[in-house]
């Protein structure tokens, strides 16, 4: 039996290890592409954090290391003359967790399994016309605004009596706006989104977990070195997300900022990848402190 004080302190440990890693977007993720394009991505993320992988709630004394793998498929198509896309994302994670103060367990606990499946629908509002591959080859990129809706489904591995879970046992909806404008050989991109959390009614046994919306804004300033190589400086700011357990607010509103850098490359017209790193540079007391290495490969046809 877990006491109420332990339950309150341990809010994050039984949350999803997936939805919030949020996929924070990478630079140039929302730029226009030809229609009728298939895209397959494979991600490896190395995560070091004081939260479960979703980074929505920290835990005092927690150290968690994770190897996070993502499979992502996207298909582009046109709607009313604008470019659109549907995406499918399936995570898998191997995690190890320990507590500096041995508050909940001593030594290291490990877990691995499938994360929550995500479906994403994106539609361009302006600046991203639906173009064939032939039309796209002669098209000049322009300022754009794209909207997206991420839906995270509670499909991942979850056990209400387990301390470290991979799945979240709750729905998450994330509407997003992505803006970008070319400036000579550079791109300035600003994305903003809000995560809207469903309830977990089997939280750490039979408790009920609720959470306020978590707001975020991120920026990317990237420079094109040549047709096959670009670099980017990246920044993200998060605020909100206070949680409630069995009707009691936890006074754990979060606020943090992250900085990072990315390197994107193409090895052929169809095959390329990305290497990125980001780290927390400022956080409100009790807020997430996370750093992540990302390696991505992609193939399009």
Describe the structure.
- The chain is 4% helix and 57% strand.
- With 301 residues, the chain is mainly β.
- It has a single domain, classed as Lipocalin.
- The protein has a 12-stranded antiparallel barrel with strand order 1-2-3-5-6-7-8-11-12-15-16-17. The chain has a 4-stranded antiparallel β-sheet with strand order 9-10-13-14, with no helix packed on it.
- The chain is globular, with a radius of gyration of 20 Å.
- 39% of the residues are buried.
Summarize the structure.
The protein has 301 residues and is mainly beta. The chain has helices spanning 4-9, 133-137, and strands spanning 38-49, 62-79, 82-99, 108-114, 118-126, 144-152, 172-183, 186-197, 200-203, 207-211, 214-226, 229-240, 243-245, 248-249, 254-266, 271-283, 290-300. The strands form two sheets. The protein has a twelve-stranded antiparallel β-barrel with strand order 1-2-3-5-6-7-8-11-12-15-16-17.
Question: What is the overall shape?
Answer: globular
Number of strands: 17
Radius of gyration: 20 Å
Q: Given the structure, what is the number of helices?
A: 2
CATH class bucket: Mainly Beta
Elements, N to C (H/E): HEEEEEHEEEEEEEEEEEE
Helix coverage percent of residues? under 10%
The CATH topology label is: Lipocalin
Q: N- to C-terminal separation?
A: 54 Å
Characterize the main sheet: 12 strands, antiparallel, barrel
Q: What is the CATH homologous superfamily assignment?
A: Autotransporter beta-domain
Any guess at the CATH architecture?
Beta Barrel
Taking pLDDT < 50 over at least 5 consecutive residues as the criterion, the unreliable ranges are 1-22
What structural category do the secondary elements indicate?
mainly beta
Mean pLDDT score: 88
**What is the number of independent domains?**
1
Sheet with the most strands: spatial strand order? 1-2-3-5-6-7-8-11-12-15-16-17
Strand residue percentage: over 45%
